[in-house]
Amino acid sequence: MTGAGNHVIPNVHFRKVNGMTKGGHYRAMFRTWFDQAARKKRRSQNRKAKAARLAPRPVAGLLRPVVHPPTQRYNMKLRLGKGFTLEELREAKISPKLAPTIGIAVDHRRRNKCAESLAVNVNRLKLYKSKLLIFPNKSGKKGVKKGDTPKSELTNVAQNTFKEIIPVERPTLRVKARAISAEEKEASAYKTLKKARTNLKYDGAKRKKAEEAKSKDA
Questions:
Q1: Alpha carbon distance 26, 85 (integer Å)
Q2: Cβ pair 137, 145 in contact under 8 A
């Protein structure tokens, strides 16, 4: 019998104890985690092997742009994108064909929607160029090409082992509490938005009226 009230009829199965029973040996389906320390060690060794394989190139791979994720839920954040736009490369005076050869990712599909994001990524490219060291493909004088770093600067070069080649500067979104000014008290956000919508709605009619008045005067 159930207790008082409109409850679900109990239909519980108390046959599965400690995972799946297997005769007298319980915990047959339990997954252990005894290899946690060994996995940690293996990951560390793999990271070191990858760094040695890529040296002297950065461990993070290609340089990527700073972008805002899509949708209203995430567009206030910053993350690394797929590649730099052709416009960003043009502003930084880097050829789109040269960029992948010097460790810069290119995305021909992405477009710049505002001047701010364009300026941020152009500055990112310029900073990368200022720190870039290009090793010659071959040894000897014949292997040195135009744009390669002089041999004197290529001694004891430290490898970039960061997760991001140039860390993304994420602004602090927290705003400290302060007193509300008299101007802010008098201002009305509703009236400002209403006025802007009204001006946008009647913009065409106002222009037409102004043109007609100008043609009459003429």
A1: 59
A2: yes
DSSP code for 51: H
Give the angle subtended at the CA of 148 by the CAs of 143 and 165, to the nearest 5°: 125
Task: Assign 3-class secondary structure to 53-121.
Answer: HHCCCCCCCCECCEECCCCCCCCCCCEECCCECHHHHHHCCCCCCCHHHHCECECCCCCCCCHHHHHHH
State pLDDT tens for residues 146-174: 778 888 788 888 899 999 999 998 888 78
CA 140 to mean position of chain CA atoms = 40
Average pLDDT of the residues in 6-24: 66
In sequence order, which residues have a C-beta less than 8 Å from that of residue 99 and are 6 or more positions away? Answer: 84, 89, 105, 106
Instruction: Give the integer Cα–Cα distance in Å for 138 and 145.
Output: 10
3-state SS assignment for residue 212: helix
Q: If DSSP codes are grouped into helix, strand and coil, which group holds residue 16?
A: coil
- Phi, psi angles (nearest 5°) of residue 105: -80, 140
Highest-scoring range by mean pLDDT, 71-80, 131-140, 153-162, 166-175: 71-80
